[in-house]
Amino acid sequence: MTKPIHVLNGPNLNRLGLREPEIYGPTTLAEVERICREAAGEAGLVFRQTNAEYQMIDWIHEAIDASSALLINPAAWTFYSMAVMDALKMYPHPLVEYHISNVHRRESIYHRSLVSPVATVVMAGGGARGYGHALRLLRDLVADRAAA
């Protein structure tokens, strides 16, 4: 049996559905988790959210050994956290950086990701539904690796 896919969500994503719904939509984090669990299927899923940077780094370290793939929405840490980036540089499996909004259509502060250069795939702008697409892609990438 393969290791589960880890989905890690950064700061303020616990407020989905309430926080700037014109940007992030009405979907709550609990609904995002349901979308992810359905998309992960038999692969299994570890789903987490934190507002604490040190906690995110600890979870990335854990995922290095305990997951087959990683989907991360680092939120604000995308744009300034070298510590999150450095932790992700150690991640040896397929890694998707995901953003609910299209960060490239927003203010320029959101245009430079520290995470993108270390991610396998970068996805943005698909709303909450995009998590499911990202997870299906990760399942395919894991299967491709296993077949190689």
UniProtKB/TrEMBL annotation:
SUPFAM superfamilies: Type II 3-dehydroquinate dehydratase. The record marks R19 as: Transition state stabilizer. Homododecamer. Pathway: Metabolic intermediate biosynthesis; chorismate biosynthesis; chorismate from D-erythrose 4-phosphate and phosphoenolpyruvate: step 3/7. Belongs to the type-II 3-dehydroquinase family. Catalyzes a trans-dehydration via an enolate intermediate. It catalyses: 3-dehydroquinate = 3-dehydroshikimate + H2O. Keywords: Amino-acid biosynthesis, Aromatic amino acid biosynthesis, Lyase. GO terms for molecular function: 3-dehydroquinate dehydratase activity. Its EC number is 4.2.1.10. Substrate binds at N73, D86, I100, S101. This is 3-dehydroquinate dehydratase. The keyword Amino-acid biosynthesis applies. It holds the Pfam family DHquinase_II. The active site is at Y24 (proton acceptor), H99 (proton donor). InterPro entries: DHquinase_II, DHquinase_II_CS, DHquinase_II_sf. PROSITE patterns: DEHYDROQUINASE_II (PS01029). It comes from the Bacteria.
